[in-house]
């Protein structure tokens, strides 16, 4: 079910990207699109906070922010809970260097170079981006060394 939800979120995000390309008659780099989505989510969140007295408007803005963030948070959720980057268009703020050859003894250098933060983390995650990177990286290390980490259902 989680895989289907992530796939569906990704499809919706790609549909929106294609609509932008058609409407503007130009292409947009995935990094630019991710920055745009981040800015929209941040803007909607800030406006919702500012509308504390008007519950109807605040509720609407919160729902809009939730809908705008679903696809991106699906990628983030998979990284944090499984240590897997499911990001075929490079929109996520963590980069995976797939060209590295796995050493026999899994040196620390390999893991430092395999995953890194891209420039331009989403503003709403900027202060915890490093922690998010390390969390998924550790899960990935465990999985590739043959250990399975089960996330408790109450955390999902």
Mind explaining what this structure looks like?
There is one protein chain. The chain is mainly alpha-helical and 156 residues long. 61% of the residues lie in helices and 4% in strands. The protein has a two-stranded antiparallel ribbon with strand order 1-2. Helix 1 (2-24) packs across helix 3 (55-82). The longest helix has 28 residues, at 55-82. Belongs to the TUBGCP family.
Low-confidence stretches: none
Number of domains: 1
The major β-sheet equals: 2 strands, antiparallel
Structural class: mainly alpha
Tally of separate helices: 5
Task: Please give the number of β-strands.
Answer: 2
Distance between the termini: 12 Å
- What value does the average pLDDT take? 75
In what order do the strands lie side by side in the largest sheet? 1-2
N-to-C order of helices and strands: HHHEHEH
Radius of gyration: 18 Å
- How much of the sequence is in beta strands? under 5%
How would you sum up the global shape? globular
Helix content: 55-70%
Main location: cytoplasm
Domain Gamma tubulin complex component protein N-terminal: 39-149
Protein name: Gamma-tubulin complex component
Function: Component of the gamma-tubulin ring complex (gTuRC) which mediates microtubule nucleation.
Structure described in brief:
This protein is mainly alpha-helical. It contains five helices and two strands, in the order αααβαβα. The protein has one domain (2-155).
